[in-house]
Structures are given as structure tokens and as C-alpha cells.
Amino acid sequence: MIRVLIADDQHLVRSGLSALLGAEPDVDVVGVAADGDEALAMARALAPDVACLDIRMPGRTGIDVARELCAPDAAVVVPVLVLTTFDLDDYVFGALEAGASGFLLKDAEPEVIVAAVRQVAAGQGTIDQALTRRVLREFVQRRRLQPVTGRRAEELLTRREHEILLLLAQGMSNEDIARALVVEVSTVKSHLARMLPKLGVASRLQAVVWAYQNHVVSVPEPGA
User: Which of 102, 130, 158 lies at the terminal end of a domain, its last residue?
Assistant: First the structure.
């Protein structure tokens, strides 16, 4: 059972998400919060498998809450899925940099939202398909390089870790990567656990952004 916390300052959104997710046989909505402070307190008390957070909320923003819950040294680490009405702005980038496992637009199809919750609970990142290319291009153009550069990563990463990074950038799940490399899923997870600290990132989604940002892989051209 996937235990989910929902936080949004709009009652209609909270109710809609609660009804949508609660109707799934493998999802249990364990808490609903109306602001960031309440969301953080509930997340620490309930330790849900996924926290679905709005960005703009009274008190702490969704970004603030994500930063608290996704920090490697957090007392309670909770994967975060950000749901936003903004299709491209600093709030979205801030959420990603804070360690959120993914984000979607609130007008995403219901089945997409449900699938995203399951992906985040399974340790996989997700980005709204309508945003992927634009987000990556914006990161390349607007964000400075991470402390670990692409050239330096060639020295730090093993051949297998580099292969996994390239497959991650193609949007593959751990299971997809395991099949492609003919290894166990647990082996992929072990490589990821060693690779992320080398790159100076906290999540697989940040690793993908890092790969594009440092030109390890290229942003597809429109229509490609």
C-alpha cells in the first residue's frame, strides 16, 4: 500500500486529489494539509511514501517543505511529487533543486497523476511530458554548472555508472535499465547509490538534469 500525504491551499484541489488517489486499491491517503507548515509536521509524524505538494502555500512553500523532507540528513526522508499550475518558472526549478522526485501540472490527466505517485513511491523520478524538453533547455540556459563537471565525472564514474547515467537520461526506469544491461534491479540500485554522491546530486531526476546541463547528453531539437 502506498501511503500518500496531500498538501494544497485550495480545498477543491485537496478534495479532488484525495478522491482520485483514495479510489486506487494500492493507495492510502494518510493525511491532507492546507499549508506548508502543516504539511511538514504531518510528513514528519506520518512518514508517508509520497508527499504531493503544491508550490505556493501559506507559511512554508512546497519548495521549503521539499527541501526539509528530501535533505540527505533529514530526520524523516519523504519523496516529494510537486503539482503546480505554473508550466515553467523558478518555482518549478527550485522544487527540482530542493530534491523533489518529480513534478506535474495540475491539469495532467488523472491516470498520469496516479502513475506519477506510483513512480515516485518506487524511487523513480517523473516530469510532465509537456515540460520535459522546455525544462531541460531552461536548465541548460539559466543554471550554472554543478560543482562536478562533465569532464570531472569521466574520472569519477565507472564505465557501468556512465552507462546507467545515459540510460537514465533516456527516461528508463530501474527495471528498464536492468533489462538493457542484463543485470539485476538491485545491481542498478547499488550503482545509483554510488553514482549520485559522485555527481553531487540527491536524486535520479537531478542526475538526469545534471547530464543535460553538463552536456553529457544533448537536449533534443524540437521535432526530433
Answer: 130
- Interstrand relation of 2-7 and 80-84 (parallel, antiparallel or unpaired): unpaired
Question: Cell 503539482 belongs to which residue?
Answer: 83
What is the value of pTM for the model shown?
A: 0.65
Structurally, the chain folds into a number of domains equal to: 2
- Alpha helices of 60-144 — where are they, by DSSP H? 62-70, 90-97, 110-121, 132-142
The amino acid occupying position 3 is R
What's the domain range around 90? 2-130
- The CB density around residue 21, as the number of other CB atoms within 10 Å, is 21
Interval 141-162 mean pLDDT: 65
Residue type, 198: K
- Torsion sign across C-alpha atoms 139, 143, 144, 145: negative
Helix (H, G, I), strand (E, B) or coil at 99: coil
Please compute the mean of the pLDDT values over residues 145-155 and round it to a whole number: 58
Residue with cell 530534491: 99
